[in-house]
């Protein structure tokens, strides 16, 4: 299995990346350097993760010490919901570039198909979800900005050489179809939640048809959501009998089996970890191959279980009902 996916413009993205969501700031500079030593070249960042300066420290330390060249790395970041208006897209990108200490991004994604009211950079950054956290009942304040306006501003970033590729996160087939009707630069990548409990077969088939590569976030499923109360350990894939049996037959860990399934489907994956042992373990997914019947057995675990659903968490955590999938 090739460890690079070729995008619709010829760019090549490593199929295994390191996700930065919920990684603690103090450990990040060292973690990034260790990941690069192991062989990681793909780092998945976002304004909203609040840790891009620390990722930037790690990248610069690796470049300065000669661990790799900038051209060897694939750095992704994401446009936050408050910056969807055309006049805010480039400043948002430039803020991420400043924090990451980079001159360009390999990929810039619209983080959600959710446009909310602008929060000035010097007022609060990252702005997170609430427009006014100090309000009596803070909410997400929606700003009705067309995706077309945002996308055209994203295209301008490519024209200016600030971004090599642009793409989308958390879009469904209908939103992608609409975007393709006017896009001068087609999206290179769609990033969505993907794991054996949420296989998204139709969405993947549609993206293959339209030559849009897919990256799966939360590729281990429930594991990413225990700490924020959005999943419980009894939902873990890593103790599932089918996964455990396959892991035993390959003398691999259950996590490696689940991650290998993601890569072997032809998608990229961006698992998060904070430990060196797990960094090394995850990188071992290129060392073995799952049989067709094993792939099918893992896919059969699908239950359309979505953990990262704005239609659910926005109402609970942010006092705003905002479904995007129904």
What does this structure look like?
The chain is α/β, with parallel strands linked by helices and 326 residues long. Helix 4 links the parallel strand 6 and strand 7. Helix 2 packs across helix 3 and helix 7 crosses helix 8. The radius of gyration is 19 Å and the shape is globular. The chain has one domain: TIM Barrel. The strands form two sheets. An eight-stranded parallel sheet has the order 3-4-5-6-7-8-9-10, with helices on one face. Strands 1-2 form a two-stranded antiparallel sheet. It is built from eleven helices and ten strands.
Give the number of helices.
11
Instruction: Provide the succession of SSEs.
Output: EEEHEHEHEHEHEHEHHEHHH
The tally of strands reads: 10
Specify the CATH class. Alpha Beta
Portion in strands: 5-15%
Structural class: alpha/beta
Read across the widest sheet, the strand sequence of neighbours is: 3-4-5-6-7-8-9-10
Unreliable stretches, pLDDT < 50, 5 or more residues? none
State the end-to-end CA separation.
Answer: 35 Å
Report the mean per-residue pLDDT as an integer: 97
Would you identify the CATH architecture? Alpha-Beta Barrel
CATH topology (level 3) name = TIM Barrel
How many discrete structural domains? 1
- Which sheet architecture does the biggest sheet show? 8 strands, parallel
Shape, per Cα inertia axes: globular
Radius of gyration: 19 Å
């Amino acid at each position: 299995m090739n460890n690079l996916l070729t995008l619709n413009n010829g760019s090549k993205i490593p199929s295994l990346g390191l996700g930065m969501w919920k990684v603690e700031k103090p450990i990040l500079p060292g973690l990034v350097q260790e990941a690069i030593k192991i062989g990681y070249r793909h780092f998945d960042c976002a304004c909203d993760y609040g840790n891009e300066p620390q990722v930037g420290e790690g990248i610069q330390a690796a470049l300065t010490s000669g661990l790799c060249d900038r051209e060897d790395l694939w750095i992704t970041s994401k446009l936050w919901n408050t910056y969807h208006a055309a006049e805010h897209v480039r400043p948002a990108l430039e803020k991420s570039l400043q924090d990451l200490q980079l001159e360009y991004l390999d990929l810039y994604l619209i983080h959600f198909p959710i446009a909310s009211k602008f929060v000035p950079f010097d007022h609060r950054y990252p702005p997170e979800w609430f427009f006014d956290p100090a309000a009596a009942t803070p909410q997400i304040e929606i700003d009705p900005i067309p995706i077309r306006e945002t996308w055209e501003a994203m295209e301008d970033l490519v024209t200016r050489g600030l971004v090599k590729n642009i793409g989308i996160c958390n879009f469904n087939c209908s939103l992608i179809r609409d975007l393709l009707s006017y896009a001068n630069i087609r999206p290179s990548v769609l990033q969505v939640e993907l794991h054996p409990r949420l296989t998204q077969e139709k969405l993947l088939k549609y993206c293959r048809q339209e030559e849009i590569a897919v990256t799966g976030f939360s590729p281990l499923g429930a594991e990413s959501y225990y700490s924020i109360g959005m999943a419980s350990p009894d939902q873990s894939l890593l103790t599932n009998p089918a996964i455990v049996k396959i892991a035993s037959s390959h003398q691999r860990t259950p996590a490696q089996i689940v991650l290998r399934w993601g890569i072997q489907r032809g998608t990229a994956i961006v698992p998060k970890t904070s430990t060196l042992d797990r960094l090394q373990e995850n990188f071992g997914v290129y060392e073995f191959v799952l049989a067709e019947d094993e792939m099918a057995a893992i896919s059969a675990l699908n239950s359309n279980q979505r953990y990262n659903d704005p239609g659910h968490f926005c109402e609970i955590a942010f006092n705003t009902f905002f479904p995007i999938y129904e």
